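step: validate -> pass
step: tokenize input -> pass
step: predict -> running
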Amino acid sequence: MTSGNLHVDRAEALRYLGYAGQVLDEDLAMRFDDAVEACERGVVPRCAHASFALDPARSQEGRLALKGCGLVMEGSAIARHLEGACGVVLMACTLGEACERELRRRVATSPTDALLYDAAASALVEAAADAEEACIVEEAAALGLHANFRYSPGYGDFPLAAQPALLAALQAPARLGLASTESHLLVPSKSVTAVVGLFVGDPPHAPALAACEACTMQDRCAFKSQGGTCHG
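step: predict -> pass
step: emit ->
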């Protein structure tokens, strides 16, 4: 699926830059606008998702397996996120290689412009992930199901090592040109993968992302040091 007509949330992009109400001088404001416009003009986010049933026969405490794919999700955080779920939806979004090329070009010409473009791209891929998640929620509702929020490898104790199997389940390398490195980082870098739980009734737990103490980045989070969170 291609996510068109998406726009960079400028406030979100500024937040990635560490903006906290400072006044941008005219030159920096113009360069920021250029980065946002270049990102919106030159990048087309691509997304995919697919639903899977949980596989109780191959699951155990702290390890949730899915039917029809090789993904086994480990950790108490993802187990809590999916507690009571009747199934899951795996999703992936990427800005693709065009974004990577433009970022490399800006790095070579101006570190400041590269930083501004990087922030705009981060905000755009989050917008794409939000749109894909909204699509999942809508599709679930049409089936009489409830969907909770997306939860990504790297949150809590849900390891990044889940990335290769998650991408394989979605056929993301072929469909989206999205893969992972040996250290399980996504390539292209401006990409998001996540798991959404499906429930017959209301999900049993309120969004846990607000509880930053569960995050493995809590001791070195730039957002937390500024009194914010990575999720708004």
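step: describe -> The two ends are 26 Å apart (CA to CA).
step: cleanup -> pass
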